[in-house]
Amino acid sequence: MTMNKDNVFMSEEEIREQVRQAVAEGENISREVERITGEALELGRVEFDRLQAVIENIGRGASAGASEQPDNARRDIKAAFEGLQNALLHAFENAKLATQEQAARVEGFYEKELKLRLQEMQQMEKTMLDSLSDAARAGTDTGAAALNDLVDHARRSGTRLGEEVDKSMRTMAKSLPEALRETALAGMSVAREATARAAEVASGVLSGVADTLHKDKTPANKKGSNTDGQY
Asked: Which pTM does this prediction carry?
């Protein structure tokens, strides 16, 4: 469970339901999902041991909500994804500042902990996409198919979160002690490449469902969809 701004624990079911309702209502989806995600992550503090569960439940809620308005499913899933990324970018910045403060007075006792935190920060984009992929596989409806399509495209084209993490980690590495600098830089390119390679595996998941759900779409329904460029 996670705690919201009123210090009341939010269960996974509550996270899913709040996101489902926000997406189904179709108003200010991005802003609402950003708010819910921020509260689920305890106002931006990244707790990596539960990050996957929070993101997956955000994805499940968005998928369920988008399925209630199937004609707008792709648009609404994209809006929810934007809100999720906004919240994760804020959480990443908080984690980065905390890590820099700790690194400035790092001692041997804390070095292992900080190295683990740096590795977790590197993996935020992969964690996000893997967790959303799990959410998509959990459903068979319009929203799940739209979420699967978005994740597949994001793996191939990249995300704002991944780009910002990559850039920030490289900048932050310059100010870190030498013992931590290599950890901050190690595997950056490898992580992005692994995410792209994973798309080859993920691309077939739910493709049959997606084809069935989309085969009757008119050109007008597809006109506004984003099929190219970074998410």
From this structure: 0.76
